[in-house]
Amino acid sequence: MISLCMIVKNEEAVIGRCLDSIKNVVEEINIVDTGSTDRTKEIARDYTDRIYDFEWVDDFAAARNFSFEKATQEYILWLDADDVLAEKDTEKFSALKQTLQPSVDAVAMDYHLAFDEYGNVTFYIKRNRLVKRKRQFRWIGAVHEYLEVGGTIVQSDIAVTHLPLHHDSDRNLRIYEKRLERGEAFTPRDFFYFANELADHLLYERAISYYEKFLATNKGWIEDNITACSKLADCYFQLGQPEKELQATFRSFIYDRPRPEFCCRLGYYFLNRNALETAVFWYTLATQQTETTMGFVNKACSTWLPHLQLCVCHSRLGDHESAYHHNEKARKYRPTDPNVLHNKHYLEGIMQKYILY
Questions:
Q1: Residue 334: strand, helix, or coil
Q2: Which of 131, 240, 343, 354 sits at a 20 to 30 Å CA gap from 58?
Q3: Could you tell me how many helices (H) and strands (E) the chain has, helices first?
Q4: 168-256 with 257-357: one CATH topology?
Q5: Residues paired with residue 28 on neighbouring β-strands, in sequence order
Q6: What's domain 257-357's architecture?
Q7: Calpha distance 32→6 (Å, rounded)
């Protein structure tokens, strides 16, 4: 029923972990190797004989489309070698297979990218993970490729967890720079992801120029537009330009309601200027937003972080009961956080004095 399709290169440290987590819920495993020089293919042979070589041409979409062409089952699942399914998600996946209707063209799953020390998911995105083979959906983009999907899409709560051990941090930047040297025309998506690579390499001023080129096209996906505003704000923060950081933050409101990340950024801006009531407004708004986006989500900005900051704001305003209330909200997510425990002890001491007097 399900073909797993993967592209890999020098993944001997993680590919076994990935395949162990998924082998019992797929009927077929297809491994496309783009030039491994380690034991990747040898390890993969313990799980499948469907292993194919693909000459690397600096094009992720080309490699992924080749992998999809090898699938023979009704649905295709794609993973990277440093992804895994936790046991609970494997169980959910098995249940999904039993109830999946023939009318479904794709299934979106959470992609958990980061966790805090308490096991809370701090950063995730939705991805269309399972797609009907007969629909012949295609990957697009040499770098930061995406799967163009349409039709009936089911939103599931199954999560794929990303657990990388290593990453060639310069690879994508090199690909973009080569494309520029060849004089290739960049799409709006190229502008966006090239700007991300520049920002990740601390080339902030150059990154700003490409974020601006991206936004000027007025053709970007709304989630990329919003992320570009966030990245612009980050760049201006790193360059020590708070007013431009503020402008980039408010610019995000052009595209959607205030997202928690931007509310927290505004709360921090006004808290640092001792505009406490204004800071309270923005942090409170952050706690009231629900995330329904297919874009990247920073869970901290709608859970413990605004509550912790509201504790600070209310304490400075002299409202210790409200401060305590918000600190307890934060403590549900971070039960042993030193800052949270310090606030708890401090506020309980103050409120006890009120009771005594």
A1: coil
A2: 131
A3: 14, 11
A4: yes
A5: 3
A6: Alpha Horseshoe (1.25)
A7: 6
Beta strands in the chain (DSSP E): 2-8, 28-33, 51-53, 75-78, 83-84, 106-115, 121-132, 138-140, 146-148, 153-162, 297-298
Instruction: Report yes or no: 324 and 349 within 8 Å, Cβ to Cβ.
Output: no
Q: How far apart are CA 28 and CA 90, in angstroms?
A: 16
**Within a 13 Å sphere around the CA of 6, how many CA atoms are in the beta-carbon half?**
31
C-alpha pair distances (Å), 318 with each of 26, 254, 281, 349, 351 = 58, 36, 16, 14, 11
- Alpha-carbon distance 15 to 27, whole Å? 18
- 3-state DSSP assignment of residue 234: helix
User: What is the rounded average pLDDT of the residues 284-297?
Assistant: 84
Count Cβ atoms below 10 Å from residue 292 Cβ, excluding itself: 8
Q: What is the pTM of this model?
A: 0.85
pLDDT score, position 357: 46
Structure letter (DSSP) for residue 279: H
Q: Which amino acid is at 78?
A: W
Topology at the third CATH level for domain 2-162? Spore Coat Polysaccharide Biosynthesis Protein SpsA; Chain A (3.90.550)
31, pLDDT greater than 90: yes
321: left (phi over 0), alpha (psi -120 to 50) or beta: alpha
List the one residue out of 53, 12, 58 whose CA is nearest residue 30.
53
Q: pLDDT tens across 172-184, in order? A: 999 999 999 999 9
Pick the CATH number of 168-256 from 1.25.40.10, 2.40.128.50, 3.30.70.380, 3.40.50.2000: 1.25.40.10
Average pLDDT of the residues in 275-290: 95
Q: 127-146, pLDDT tens digit by residue?
A: 999 999 999 999 999 999 99
- Check: CB of residue 22 under 8 Å from CB of residue 45: no
What pLDDT sits at residue 169? Answer: 76
